[in-house]
Specification:
The structure holds 3 protein chains of 3 kinds.
Chain A (H helix, E strand, L loop, with lengths): L2 E8 L2 E8 L4 H8 L18 E4 L2 E4 L12 E3 L11 H8 L9 H14 L5 H7 L11 H19 L1
Parallel strand pairs in A: 1-5
Antiparallel strand pairs in A: 1-2, 3-4, 3-5
Chain B lengths: L21 H4 L16 E7 L5 E7 L1 H5 L3 E6 H5 L5 E3 L5 E3 L5 E2 L5 E7 L2 H10 L1 E6 L28 E8 L1 H9 L3 E9 L11 E7 L4 E6 L4 H12 L9 E4 L15 H13 L3 E4 L2 H7 L6 E9 L5 E11 L28 E9 L16 H19 L3 H8 L8 E2 L5 E2 L4 H12 L1 H13 L3 E10 L11 E2 L2 E2 L2 E7 L5 E5 L8 H13 L6 E5 L16 H28 L6 E4 L2 E4 L2 E7 H10 L10 E6 L8 E10 L6 E11 L6 H20 L4 E2 L5 E2 L18 E4 L17 H18 L13 H9 L5
Parallel strand pairs in B: 1-14, 12-13, 16-17, 24-25, 31-34
Antiparallel strand pairs in B: 1-7, 2-6, 2-8, 3-7, 4-5, 9-17, 10-15, 11-12, 11-14, 15-16, 18-19, 20-30, 21-22, 23-24, 23-29, 26-27, 27-28, 30-31, 32-33
Helix pairs in contact in B: 9-17, 13-14, 14-15, 16-17
Chain C lengths: L6 E3 L4 H11 L3 E4 L5 H6 L7 E4 L9 E4 L2 E5 L4 H6 L1 H6 L1 H7 L5 H6 L2 H6 L7 H8 L2 E5 L9 E5 H4 E3 L2 E2 L6 E8 L4 E10 L6 E12 L2 E10 L6 E2 L1 H7 L6 H14 L10 H23 L4
Classes of the chains: A alpha+beta, B alpha+beta, C alpha+beta.
Chain lengths: ~160, ~800, ~300
């Protein structure tokens, strides 16, 4: 069983662990670190429930090995809030952008990256931007509204 | 809805209060089954059959057992020692937990590997060697009862064919007579293919057995925890499990839609393994296992006939259905209803008579049939009737809206007894359709369509005016494995006026923590923020049959209202004591009792709650709580009218849903925001099978659609911007005038979309199309190419 | 869901990677974006015992014009192509292509080089590269003269399904596309069942004009054969014409005839072939519009 010792900065905290070479990043996050907000919903890299930020880029953590994150930063849903909720988290609550909550962390992380690249996306751009994340409950309408809420709030804040 | 009785702070019915569930989910602090970690926990993974029908010649576990981390391999022979290798289904059929002699569907469980970690368990599965001898396969249900068809359930005594049941409803001879004398009759085969709920969270459990106390605790993805507990006690009582020592915990559930109602073999194997090994066992299926082995939906082959007068009056309906149940009848229907509520198929229309017959057959496919937000076969029924009504309109050159308006059950006919015996509680179908037509600009769309047709552009408008039947259900008609389908609410008010309420249902995203609090807020005037709602732990929740088939508001919601009214009765006694007045001299206004004519002389419900523990009247018990088990007197009948507008790319056959307007009526609404969210989700699960999703099998029983590569769940790009509106026709028998709503949109949407596509192509001679309406199917219909 | 065991290697230079591949032999696979390989490993359809991760090699991630070519480093992510102003302005066909590959999350990691080197005829870039007449640079163990580097024409690159001209210990390092000169336009049209799916069919078209006359045409077809297909007869049928509607129709027919589709769950052979025709028509039209200054 081939293993490596890796150090990954997860939500601002550097953690060192010995892991199997084949350990998927999503399992590293969930099982090694107990951060269970990142979810697993498929086995063919479709659903996006496992989305995290790897050095500010949204990736499907089920399709990255933990060893690839050695020396890098990972941000999960648990790392989204600072002293207050992130506007995306607020937006999902305000706009009823979630029901069962299982796809929600992945949606929020994808949306974070989307807004980082484009602070004022159109509805179409939002739908394309979250097309790597599947939801079975909401029908996406309120998720779009949640992202728009966050976009407006972030624009207000950056204007201040 | 403008007439909320309570203030936004109290947040009773009609307020779109923000959900109490959300804070934990948006922080990643939800607790789903795979988040449960127990000391000493080990992992289980399952070896599955590549064959649809095969004898098991041998299972060699040597290599697997030798792999580091693997602790045990469980086979059918292991379970047979405890007589746990077979189990009942919810329809009183039997199914294998693990096979002894043969497998009956591809991906069937064959053995289970227990290991110290997930990765070793997966490696162990690869190392179990199973020798199979393939047997002839039954895939086509039409051939299942051929004389030479292999008998799939030869394990069942007396089972000499693949026929499971024959069920009928309605008046055969009366309906036949109508058909004989009809001006117009149309006959059409309509097939709804197999689909799968594919909730983003798959199924799984963590099972922990304490051999000292005999306590079994199972965290499980289940929509019906109490039913599971009772079934386990009955099935495994002989190995020492007893119901007072079984605790089922349904934590946060990542979507259910009916797929988390059945008892899957994986659960039973994990439970057996945890009892035998004494270790907590976690089993979480992966997506392919979920799609390939868990309960499917639909797979109904319907031969539909409709009889009408030449002026479009609908008189008779006849449907003969062949139901493909897979290798076991594991549909989660109420026991007397092997075809669910299929006989609701006369729909929103005033038919004179109707008759349906359904034959269920076994095939070499996974068992199931009731899932995917279908409301116990109502999706199938509504699809049939809405398509047939459109076909009559087409035949007679009538407008699709006009034929519906002419045949709707009129508002003053409710309560309405259908020819099938359903007593519809209330409805105003004309108003819903009119609202939909006005809002979408129906006449303008017809003009646009005519103009586009001149230019060779394909545009279609489709209507679906459905009636749903939900809220199972009255005890005289409904039970699951004999357990009646009441539901329950237990409400306790603490001295400081805060409330703990527990229910026998189990939300998987429907927002019960919020909506049930709102019901209590409505009834008692206590702010919804002071009310905590719990579900899903069988140790604490009152007995209930769970959440599916849109039953929660009709049953448990009603139970909450009734429990509140019991509390209010007692509160009145305490108030009378506090106010030194007679009970009959008191009047109730949201949240307080006051003396009639002396409004200043009042006590709030919070005052009363405190007094219930500190100053209760002599002769009255202390405390302020009540439990109610609600046996609904009838089902509820939500309804709606949907209009879909589609544009078709004639070069590729791609269908784009340009607009979709859903007008729903679910009676009095608890939380409009949540109801709208349910509609959005339901519409998307109506769009999905209409255009994208299908599970099919080749002649060898190999599945297509067994992963998200082929099973096409729509993304935000494929999904249109749903438009919604409502009418409100309260249920006369429900204590809150409310009806269920969670499944309406999944039921009503597909025929609207199909009707729209057929409408777009009707000038080319197209009269019917089968879902999913893939681009190729549509392209072929346009270019009149026969199917490949 | 769980891949088999392997040994992980993370070289920091191309030479180191090549050396490793040479030492490890056939049991080693390159890990680039990983979004073709890792899903296969999770299904245990691929079980390499060694992975050579080339993500840590710097200087393989660039988009630049040099000496008459657009040079794309093999580890350039698809998402970078989507947002590049240079690509949008001068090579919009590459944006057409990258933005329909899988979904936005996959594109954040998927590499342009990987999309080509994987040799999957269902991937989208191969047909586009065929239409553009691209070349790829492959680096292998050092030779005295070549320094281990060779240039492979795209027409010589794809050998069969998942088979390319790359040797076991060669790495694709760069893709070179001739910079457009004068009046020209290119476009890629893909038909997919939903976002994230492989193509039912895809057609890439690149047209060069001299005045109103088309002097050369490149047409590549996605997922309708064992490799991306160059629709040579369709190309010939456009050359020397003004790409009128009739010309376009004729070329689209020929493109369809060049396809070798196999019926599967994405569509029957007949439908796929018909879609090649439809998409070819549309791609040629768009390419011509772009050449004429439209978008």
């Amino acid at each position: 069983m081939a293993t490596q010792t890796i150090t990954v900065n997860v939500n601002g905290e550097a953690k060192t662990a010995e892991v199997e070479d084949r350990l998927l990043l999503v399992h590293f996050i969930r099982d090694n670190h107990g951060l269970t907000g990142t979810h697993i919903g498929c086995d063919t890299t479709h659903c996006g429930a496992c989305t995290v930020l790897l050095d500010e880029t949204a990736v499907k953590s089920c399709t990255v090995f933990a060893v690839q994150a050695n020396g890098r930063n990972v941000t999960t849903i648990e790392g989204m809030e600072g002293d207050a909720l992130h506007p995306l988290q607020e937006g999902f609550m305000e706009e009823h952008g979630l029901q069962c909550g299982f796809c929600t962390p992945g949606m929020i992380m994808s949306s974070k990256h989307l807004l980082d690249k484009n602070l004022n996306p159109t509805e179409e751009e939002i739908r394309w931007g979250i097309s790597g994340n599947l939801c079975r409950c909401t029908g996406y309408v309120n998720i779009v509204k949640a992202v728009q809420y966050a976009s407006n709030k972030l624009q207000e804040t950056s204007a201040d | 809805m403008s007439q909320c009785k309570t203030s936004p702070e109290v947040g009773g019915m009609g307020h779109s209060v923000k959900r109490k569930e959300d804070p934990r989910f948006i922080r990643g602090q939800g607790k789903y089954v795979d988040d449960v970690v127990r000391p000493g926990m080990v992992y289980m993974d399952i070896v599955r059959s590549p064959y649809a029908h095969a004898k098991i010649k041998s299972i060699n576990t040597e290599k697997a057992l030798a792999h580091p981390g693997v602790a045990a391999v469980i086979t059918g022979e292991t379970l047979k020692e405890y007589n746990l290798h077979m189990m009942p289904t919810l329809m009183s059929d039997t199914q294998m937990v693990l096979p002894i002699d043969k497998v009956c569907y591809q991906a069937q469980e064959v053995a289970a590997v227990v290991a110290t970690d997930r990765y070793s368990a997966a490696d162990g599965v690869e190392l179990v060697e199973v020798e199979y001898e393939p047997l002839p396969v039954v895939v086509d249900p039409h051939k299942a009862t051929d004389p030479d068809a292999p008998i799939i359930r030869d394990d069942k005594e007396g089972q000499d064919s693949n026929h499971i049941f024959h069920w009928e409803a309605g008046d055969k001879s009366g309906t036949d007579e109508i058909f004989q004398n009809a001006d117009v009759t149309i006959k059409k085969d309509i097939y709804l293919p197999r689909i799968h709920v594919a909730s983003i969270e798959t199924c799984g459990c963590v099972s922990e057995f304490d051999s000292v106390t005999g306590q079994l605790t199972v965290w499980m993805t289940t929509q019906a925890p109490h039913a599971i507990r009772t079934v386990l006690a009955l099935v495994a009582g002989h190995v020492g499990l007893q119901e007072d020592k079984i605790r089922i915990i349904a934590p946060d559930i990542g979507g259910g839609f009916g797929g988390k109602v059945p008892v899957y073999p994986g659960y039973v194997i994990a439970i057996a393994a945890s009892v035998v090994t004494g270790l907590p066992i976690k089993w979480i299926e992966d997506r392919r296992e979920n799609l390939q082995a868990d309960s499917f939906a639909r797979d109904y082959h319907m031969t539909c006939e409709i009889a009408a007068d030449k002026d479009g009056t609908l008189n008779g309906l006849r449907i003969k259905t062949l139901a493909d149940h897979g290798y076991a009848d594991a549909a989660a229907n109420p026991s007397k209803w092997p075809a669910g509520m299929f006989s609701i198929c006369t729909g929103s229309y005033n038919f004179k008579n109707a008759f349906v017959e359904v034959d269920g057959v076994y095939t070499n496919k996974p068992p199931g049939g009731i899932a995917y937000r279908c409301s116990f076969r109502v999706t199938e029924a509504v699809h049939a009737i809405e398509r047939m009504v459109d076909m009559v309109a087409d035949e007679l050159g009538m407008d699709a809206a006009e034929i519906r308006m002419n045949n709707f059950i009129p508002k003053d006919a409710f309560p309405y007894k259908s020819p099938m015996g359903w007593e519809y509680d209330s409805g105003d179908y004309h108003a819903a359709l009119k609202l939909a037509m006005d809002k979408i600009g129906y006449d303008k769309l017809l003009k646009e369509q005519a103009e586009k047709r001149e230019k060779g552009e394909l545009m279609g408008i489709g209507i679906s005016s459905f009636t749903e039947v939900v809220g199972a259900g009255p005890s005289k008609d409904f039970d699951i494995l004999g357990i009646k389908m009441f539901d329950s609410s237990e409400i306790r008010i603490h001295p400081t006026g805060k409330v703990m309420a527990r229910f026998g249902t189990k939300s998987q995203g429907q927002g019960h923590e919020t909506t049930y609090a709102q019901i209590i807020a409505e009834e008692l005037g206590i702010p919804h923020t002071d009310i905590s709602v719990e579900e899903g732990d069988t140790d604490t929740a009152p007995y209930g049959l769970g959440t599916y088939a849109s039953r929660s508001t009709p049953t448990a919601g009603a139970a909450a209202a009734m429990a509140c009214r019991k509390i209010k009765d007692k509160a009145q006694k305490i108030a009378a004591h506090l106010l030194e007045a007679a009970e009959e001299d008191l009047e109730w206004e949201v949240g307080k009792f006051s003396v009639k004519g002396v409004p200043d002389k009042s006590v709030t419900i919070q005052d009363i709650a405190f007094a219930a523990y500190t100053n209760h009247p002599q002769g009255l018990e202390a405390g302020l709580e009540a439990t109610h088990y609600y046996d609904p007197p009838n089902m509820t009948y939500p309804f709606g009218s949907y209009i879909a507008v589609v544009d078709i790319d004639s070069g590729t056959g791609e269908v784009k849903v340009r607009r979709f307007l859903a007008v729903d009526d679910c009676g009095n609404i608890i939380n409009p925001m949540i109801v709208e969210g349910q509609i959005h989700g339901g519409l998307t699960m109506g769009l999905a099978p209409s255009l994208f999703e299908e599970i099919s099998y080749d002649d060898e029983g190999n599945i297509t659609g067994g992963s998200f590569m082929e099973y096409l769940v729509p993304t935000a790009v494929e999904t249109p911007n749903w438009e919604t509106d409502k009418t409100v026709t309260p249920s006369p028998h429900h204590p809150l005038g409310a009806k269920g709503v969670g499944e309406s949109a999944t039921v009503g949407a597909p025929p609207a979309i199909v009707n729209a596509v057929v409408d777009a192509l009707s000038h080319l001679g197209v009269r019917h199309m089968e879902i999913p309406l893939t681009p190729e199917k549509v392209w072929r219909a346009i270019h009149k190419q026969d199917a490949a | 869901m769980i891949p088999g065991s392997f040994d992980y290697h993370a070289p920091t230079t191309v030479d180191e990677a090549i050396k490793l591949l040479g030492e490890l032999g056939d049991d080693a696979k390159i890990l680039a974006g990983g979004h073709s390989l890792i899903p296969m490993m999770k299904l245990r359809l691929a079980e390499p015992t060694h992975l050579v991760d080339i993500n840590g090699i710097s200087d393989l991630d660039y988009i630049k014009e040099e000496n008459g070519y657009l040079c794309i480093g093999a580890m350039t992510r698809e998402s970078a192509l989507e947002v590049s102003e240079l690509i949008a302005e001068k090579y919009p066909i590459l944006k057409d292509t990258s933005e329909v590959i899988a979904d936005p999350l996959v594109r954040n990691l998927a590499s342009v080089g990987g999309n080509i080197a994987h040799g999957d005829p269902a991937n989208d870039h191969p047909a586009t590269m065929v239409a553009l007449g691209a070349e790829v640079i492959a680096k292998g163990p050092g030779g005295m003269l070549t320094g281990g580097e060779r240039t492979i024409s795209i027409d010589d690159f794809f050998k069969g399904p998942l088979m390319t001209d790359l040797g076991q210990n060669e790495i694709l390092t760069e893709i070179k596309i001739p910079t457009p000169n004068g009046k020209c336009g290119a476009a890629y049209k893909k038909l997919e069942r939903k976002v994230g799916d492989y193509a039912i069919a895809g057609v890439a078209v690149a047209l060069q004009f001299d005045g109103d006359s088309c002097t050369s045409a490149g047409i590549g077809l996605t997922n309708v054969g064992p490799t991306p297909i160059r629709a040579s007869e369709a190309q010939d049928a456009l050359e020397g014409t003004s790409v009128s509607d009739d010309d376009v129709n004729k070329a689209a027919e020929l493109a369809a005839a060049a396809a070798q589709p196999v019926g599967d769950h994405r569509g029957s052979e007949e439908y796929k072939r018909a879609m090649v025709k439809t998409l070819a028509y549309r791609a040629i039209k768009t390419a011509k519009d772009r050449a004429e200054g439209g978008s």
